[in-house]
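@channel sequence for tomorrow's demo:
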Amino acid sequence: MLKYYIKTFGCQMNESDSERIASFLESQKIKPAKDINKADIVIFNTCGIRQMAEDRAYGQIHNIHVTRNMKPAYRTGRHETKKPIIILTGCLANRKDVQRKLKDKVDLFCEIKDFQEKMGEFINCHPELVSGSTKTEMPKQVRHDNYLCTTPRYTNPHTAYVPIMTGCNNFCSYCVVPYARGREVSRPIEEIILEIKNLLKNGCKEIVLLGQNVNSYHGACNMKHETKKINFAELLQLIEKIPGHFWISFMSSHPKDFSGELIETITKSKKICEHIHLPLQAGDDKILLAMNRKYTAEKYFKLIKKIKSAFAKNKPNEIYSITTDIIVGFPGETKKQFLESARVMKKVDYDLVYFGQFSPRPGTVAFKMKDNVSKDEKKKREFFLNEILKKTAFKNNQKHIGKILEVLIDKKDGPNYFGRTHSLKNVKIHLTPTLSLSRRGSLVGKFVKVKIIKSNIWNLEAQIIK
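structure tokens (generated this afternoon):
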């Protein structure tokens, strides 16, 4: 029996894609391997956002290649091959420089949207390559115009990633996504709603909507013999109407598309998490222009003020969180321009910031710019901003002390449970000996009421309410 192993790098979208790859392979009678060294087929679902992720993929592909070269080969016609078959998909798959670099190590390069078709063709044309015997029943060639139609093999029973779109039209100067995934394509409304309803029937508690820019979603909806385009706010409203107790969250957003309608929808909802991730990337207008971000720092801050005002009006008693992305050391960024990012951080009071040191990506506009900020300077700038973040994150977390909150339990580690609040704050939950004995069965994947007893910089601590 053939076995596969998927190694996933990068974002939640890649994790979701890997779930669909797994589902396709298992529909073709190929089973998962727990150990990468026991697999007949190894798929690397790659990320090209930063050089570090790219280098990790190269290293692991090299290791598998070396391992298989130590195994005896078998002949298929005039060709000699060895297991495991190595397949590369994801962000790096269509880059010519990557293909040249790995041509002697990788057996198949294919973009994620073409995975099922290319994999079917590969196996049908070369059955011996994976089986070593023509007697093995091989997968039939499958052609899918839309790979998102595939029902995933979900890896988490209580939290599920649901892509609503793929691709991007923004062409930020540093970003590979439009080149790796192509232009924006939105899934039809009916397809998304059906997937979510099926997840909820099976006990899912949290739906995470995914897209490179979810708030530019415009999906087709068939209504009364006509097709209507639905925007992201309207999609959220439709999901909100689905019966059941569950959470809705989403990522990622672009400030230029964050509408007033969307803000009202989020802040009036009972199911949408009180958490907004709104990438800033830089606080200086000239750098934002060079990044092709299509907004100024002032416009960004006005948007933050609208969001905070809407929460204050529509959910005055709820604690919300705002997170962002910031790139340090973009080409040409002076120390004065960098300090503008620090200024915005202090004004917004972020709960969390994902920092990235600028990494030149082949094929992007910024790749042609002079990367003139040293690695040491990038590290210093990231450290400086992180010190600001520590103060604002701790200040925001202190607001939770004494609050009774609903938490979704993600895992148990030793005597403690770990989960998240409705604003997606991480919580460590202490169990008293008496409470541990009184509860039977695991709480993982369940909603529980807790009292926050302590705040730290990066998380909260709580006790379960009896």
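heads up for whoever presents: The chain is about 35% helix and 25% strand.
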